[in-house]
Amino acid sequence: MNRNNNQSNISLPQFQNPFREKVSACWEIFSKGEAKLRQLIDQKADSESITAQLDALLTPAFDTVYAEVGFNGEKYDLILNLEGDWSRLFALNYFQKKAPESVLQYWNILIGRQSHGQNMENYQLRINDNTVCAGNIQLWTAWENQKAKVCLYCKDLVPLLSERENEAYWFAYVMLDYAVGELAEMKYIDELEILRAPYGQPALTLVQLMPHFMQQLDLSRDELFDANRYCELYCGYQMKPDEASQDGLRTDVFAGSSCFVYLLNEFYSGENRIMDTFQADGITAGYFCFPLYGFEGDNRGAQILDFRDDAAEMIEKTAGQDSFTYIGGASGINYGYLDFIAWDLNTVLDAAVSVFEKSGIDHVMFHSFRRDSDSITLFDHTSK
Prior knowledge:
- It contains 13 helices and 15 strands.
- By secondary structure, it is α+β, with helices and mostly antiparallel strands.
- Helix 5 crosses helix 6.
């Protein structure tokens, strides 16, 4: 593969420090500076001092990061928040897994705001001149396909609805985060409506919401808070294919599965917000595209799936789990697609060339999940 070409940086991103290296360096910096952070927490220092120290310890890995810290009576908590952006989950989960034992001795590394459990009953959230009391919140839920519509009434929020509706919904979502955890709130609450008056039927309290979620979803509390589980929740999809498509832009796809559907949706709609966020942190998401004309017989579909799965396994083994994460794939009329996140793109591309060249496939292309980028040919034996 020739990387010294005229392709723009969006087609073949080149990072001086890929995310894999940034995370390693960041945890080293955190290890050296976390004692000061613990001291600030113990001294109940002002939020500006704590935030400044926290930013200094985390920005070596992230262009933007939202975090909270505290002490739970036994260990210190570093809580990495998504702030409503599901695409943050994968990078934060990777970062969490790389925490060294020297840090874990003192710290719990958590993803998403955590539930306050029974303490929610007396919890209050204050921003400027507004205070919202958890005890004043009433909830009604309607479930369909493991997704909930939540109707919420709180007398503290009603005055905000007329002129500061966004602020009212921010209060409501944060309260829900502290009731069931941010990950569960984002995954399972499909719609939220703030009511101007309560319904005339029995309501749930915020304290009761976590047990209610566990019952409805048949999940334990630990499962609701397990970030890695959310990263591995795959969703199947079907599409109407363009049978004449030969451009590798997935328009020939008729079926696939993904654990990162938000990324696919942005790709097909021509949006780049997630990819821009990834690129700022030294991350690339993309797919390998390979022709299917060599697969024949009654079990052709199974052959294609087995080939893709075997290739993903070998690329991960060759590049290493710290460089490559498989996130799904798709089958098209003319091409097969292997989707991934690269924490170190050059390492992944080198591994892919090694694996695919040994597979007997004639040619393979790499394409980032940017619809406006170009395909990069990794090798093409048909041109010889």
